[in-house]
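Record type: monomer structure entry
Structure origin: computed from sequence
Chain ID: A
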Amino acid sequence: MKIHNFSAGPSILPQEVFDEASVAVKDLNGSGLSILEISHRSKAFVDILDEAVSLVGELLKIGSEHKVLFLSGGASTQFAMVPLNFLNEGASASYVDTGTWSAKAIKEARAFGNINLLASSKEDQYRHIPKGYDIPSGDAYLHITTNNTVYGTQFREIPSSPIPIVADMSSDIFSRPVDINKYGLIYAGAQKNMGPAGTTLVVVREDMVGKAERHVPSMWNYKTHIAKNSSFNTPPVFPIYVSMLNLRWVRKNGGIEAMEKRSMERAKLIYDEVDRNPLFTGTTQKEDRSRMNATFLLADGYRNLEEEFLKQCKEAGISGIKGHRSVGGFRASMYNALKLESVQLLVDVMRDLERRKG
């Protein structure tokens, strides 16, 4: 049975990426060596890393002012690495709280300096993206999380900011165009739209680096990784390789603009059904709905059907549809490689439940 993977991450990747990567695990390009055993100093891997960096630059239209890094530690390491490098003692940084991951970033940042919490949707159970707040022009940076996997919200418009924006784009990177000139730094864990877990993409404006007044350990210093081209220590070779393959696939299939069109089609299909079907209800304000993670519930009077619905999904080959453990309900994560037919199958299951129980 074909499995339709709606997991929030690690998530679906294109089949051709799996196929090519599986060959390379045994033999990379006829070298007689596995991608898992080649030296990170070898020409074979340096070429892979260079191509991955080049593809990021091409797809995101990155100029010479920003540097592309592939690091370890996940987005969670960036929660602390950002303020460690950019927030000097006595200075302030601005944060917007839109969910679980932004709250974690705020918690880490408070260990390094003063944090201005400009806005939060916590009291609304993170059902919307805050708007209309003032951004202090004297702060070091503004931190936002562009897409919120747990609660299913997404920034439709990036704030106009007098200070550099730092953005956690872990779950919507490469799904829509990015005006890189708005950002001092963006970071993204690979395991959504880019590749397997194990590497983290960082794109940083070079003139922001090296200004920390505190001691920054080498491994936590962006300057270190820029100087060593992401190879200060042994980088995550296999995740970078698979990310490179996936970025090739994105380019071959129309680039970021095509990925955005596909994401809009998937989102429209599932949200139209959530809004139409009396058995289901959305969990977020419509104008802030995520195109990556559609969250929804069974409506009042039908909550007893949850196990039955999940059973139907499993029988149809639908995986990963259960909502995050902290909020319950359902979540359809629809990253770049998910085909529209998978979303249509989920909609068909929702309609079948309506026919039988509505």
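Annotation 1: Residues 255-276 form the longest helix (22 residues).
Annotation 2: Residues 3 and 317 are 5 Å apart (CA to CA).
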